[in-house]
Specification:
With 295 residues, the protein is of the alpha/beta class. Helices cover 40% and strands 12% of the residues.
Length: 295
């Protein structure tokens, strides 16, 4: 079968460019184990132009750079938000800044959200239940009321929230907290909040993720971290969600080696239409990460 060439204006909503100087030794070793490109990644963390050039070589025009606050498990503290905002500001035509807040480690969640959304103007907020050690619906159960303030602030300002769904290989991660069904409460309680379920529940909860995205108009999902050759097997009805499926790679997380090959494999999946695949790679991510109007 003749292989087709994928678009070269891809939007990757899920790339991990973070200040590795903050990562604790054990999770950092997990990330770096078996990689031959660690020096390149460290260089990219210091040089936005080099990263933008790297993405361009692989046909990626825009990228959302993931950051979140998880001081106990991963080591990231609130300063990662300032770091990613400054990084984004160097090449705003290429990068989107995902920031974060951990309500249990924040004295004033409302004030921090004003700082993130109004001062730093991060493009989205990342919630990572297995690494932050709370469920996405902890606001509804009463375990973490401050989480509701995070969602409410993003809903009010039209800022998307990305919620990790699925397991995590990092030592100490609470994988049970990654069930996409927790997002059901978030979508109900904040019906105008733009929610992205990262990883589509990989690998245990694909059906849960599909159900939630299909049920709620305000919920979409990204494909990051899922081997693209497996997509038609694990998410066979995905085209029913056209417009709500976003391309993401999770690079440079463990298991993700080559950005372009993932794109080409996805583009050449024979079961799905070119229109759907173009929506996933370009149109839907751009719409999901559209910058807010000035307040």
């Amino acid at each position: 079968m003749r292989r087709l060439s994928a678009p070269r204006d891809v939007v990757d909503v899920h790339v991990h460019i973070q200040p590795w100087s903050q990562i604790k030794a054990v999770p950092r070793a997990t990330i770096e184990r078996g990689r031959s490109d660690v020096d390149d990644i460290l260089r990219f963390q210091q040089d936005p132009d080099a990263l933008a050039d790297h993405f361009a070589e692989h046909g990626i025009a825009r990228a959302g750079l993931i950051n979140y606050v998880a001081p106990r498990l991963m080591g990231f503290d609130a300063s990662c938000n300032d770091w990613i905002a400054a990084y984004r500001n160097h090449r705003p035509e290429v990068f989107f800044a995902w920031g974060g807040v951990h309500p249990a480690f924040c004295a004033d969640v409302r004030a921090e959200m004003r700082r993130l959304l109004d001062d730093l103007r991060v493009d989205g907020i990342k919630i990572h239940p297995p690494h932050q050690e709370f469920a996405a619906n902890a606001h509804a159960t009463g375990e973490l009321p401050g989480l509701g303030e995070v969602y409410a602030a993003c809903e009010e300002r039209g800022v998307p929230v990305m919620i990790h769904t699925g397991t995590s290989i990092f030592p100490g991660a609470r994988s049970r907290l990654g069930d996409p069904m927790h997002v059901d409460d978030v979508a109900i309680d904040f019906p105008a909040l733009r929610i992205i379920m990262a990883h589509a529940g990989r690998p245990l909860w694909y059906e849960h993720a599909f159900f939630i995205a299909r049920r709620h108009a305000n919920v979409s999902l990204d494909l990051s971290g899922i081997p693209p050759q497996k997509l038609t097997e694990v998410l066979p009805r995905l085209p029913e969600l056209q417009g709500k499926v976003l391309w993401g790679t999770d690079w440079p997380s463990p298991g993700v080696r080559d950005l372009r090959s993932n794109i080409e494999v996805f583009w050449n999946l024979p079961a799905w239409s070119e229109a759907f695949k173009h929506s996933v790679l370009v149109d839907a991510p751009l719409a999901a990460l559209a910058r807010r109007q000035a307040l």
